[in-house]
Write a structure and sequence with these properties.
116 residues; mainly alpha; 0% strand; elongated
Length: 116
């Protein structure tokens, strides 16, 4: 009976989707850290907000494992950056897509050899 206890406990836990919501970062703190002048902070804040909007727009296209990994990367140094977050997400997505896509050069070379 006790052998099944972990299974029963796990089954009773509520299922919550992982990384369904976009990470919330303290952009103001990040920009204060990045630059000392007001114009620089304003530019930083605009870039961070643009990156956040892009993340929100494309959120569902990113793999959940990549979201978790990139969240850790983007917040590693402290406050965190949406620019770093979206860059990491895009690189992970592009890498994953390139690994899944057939290599066009290999296909073309193979067809040329077959015709010879």
């Amino acid at each position: 009976m006790l052998m099944h206890l972990p299974i029963v406990i796990a089954a009773a836990l509520p299922v919550s989707p992982v990384a369904d919501n976009v990470l919330r970062l303290d952009v103001a703190r990040e920009c204060r850290t990045e630059t000392e002048d007001q114009a620089g902070r304003q530019h930083c804040t605009e870039e961070e907000n643009q990156a956040l909007q892009q993340i929100k727009k494309e959120w569902q296209t990113f793999n959940a494992a990549d979201r978790r990994f990139c969240e850790k990367q983007a917040t590693m140094g402290g406050a965190g950056s949406y620019v770093e977050f979206v860059t990491c997400l895009e690189m992970a997505r592009d890498t994953r897509n390139n690994q899944n896509a057939p290599n066009q050069d290999t296909q073309h070379q193979g067809s040329r050899r077959a015709r010879k």
